[in-house]
Amino acid sequence: MKKEKHDLVIVGAGPAGISAGIYAARYKIDFVVIGSNPGGNMTESYDVENYPGLEDTTPGHMLGDRMLNQLKRFGTNPIPDDIQAITKSKDGFTLLGRDTEYQAKTVLLALGMARNKLGVPGEKELEGKGVAYCATCDGFFYREKTVAVVGGGDSAVTAALYLADIATKVYLIVRKPELKAEPTWQDKLKKTKNVEILFETSVKEIVGTEKVEKIILEGKKSEISVGGIFIEIGQTPQTVLYKSIGLKLTDKDLV
C-alpha cells in the first residue's frame, strides 16, 4: 500500500471540499482533496438558479466544472479515492483509501449527502435497469418513453422538468397533498403539459423481469406502466467517518 503525508487532507470533492481546497492552495498549505465524485451531487442538478453570482440559469454539471477548473488553476486536482476509515494517530490522523494510506496533521470532512431510497420490493433488484436516482445522468436513455419521478421537493420537480423534454410522458408521484418545491419550480411545472402529478400516492412495488415494466401504487392510481422510475426523495448525511473518530452529532446526524 502506498503512503502519503500531508498537513491537510480534505475528504470530499463537492462544493464544500473544492472551496476548502481553493483556500488551502491560496495559503500554500500542503494538502490534497480526496473524492470520487468531483463537484458532488450538485453536478446532477438540472438547472441552478439560486447560487450567488450566477446571472443566468446554469446546469449543475457546468457549475461543478467551473468550480473544479478553479481548483485546478491553483495546481490541484482531486484524488479519485474513497476513504474507508479514519483513525487518530500520534501526530494527527491516518486515513485508509483503496490502495493508499494518508497521514495528515489535520482532516477536513466535507462528505455531503447520500440519496435516500424507497426501500420497496423491486427497487434493489432493478437498480440500473430502470430504477435511477439521477435524471440528468440517466434521462437520455428514456427518450420518447413514459417515466415516473417520486418526490415532491426541488430535486423531484426539477427532475420531472428535465425529463419532460426527453420522455413522452412523466408521472410525478407525490406522497403528500401538495408540493414542497420552490414556487418558481412549481410555476414552471404547471406550464409543462406532459407531466401528470399524482398527489397522495405512494409506491408499493416496482415490477419488472429484465427491466422496469410497471409500478404498483397506493393512492390515485393502482398501477402505471413505465419504462423507468427516478427516485428523488431527499438525502441523508454521510456520517460513518464522523462517527468513527467520535464526533458528536445531532439527532438528525448533523455535525
From TrEMBL:
Look up the domain of life of the source.
Bacteria
Q: Which InterPro entries match?
A: FAD/NAD-bd_sf, FAD/NAD-binding_dom, Ferredoxin-NADP_redctase_2, Pyr_nucl-diS_OxRdtase_2_AS
SUPFAM superfamilies per the record?
Answer: FAD/NAD(P)-binding domain (SSF51905)
GO molecular function annotation: oxidoreductase activity, acting on a sulfur group of donors, NAD(P) as acceptor
Question: PROSITE patterns in the record, alphabetically?
Answer: PYRIDINE_REDOX_2
Membrane spanning stretches? none
FAD/NAD(P)-binding domain boundaries: 7-251
Instruction: Cite the entry's keywords alphabetically.
Output: Disulfide bond, FAD, Flavoprotein, Oxidoreductase, Redox-active center
What name appears for this protein in its UniProt entry?
Thioredoxin-disulfide reductase
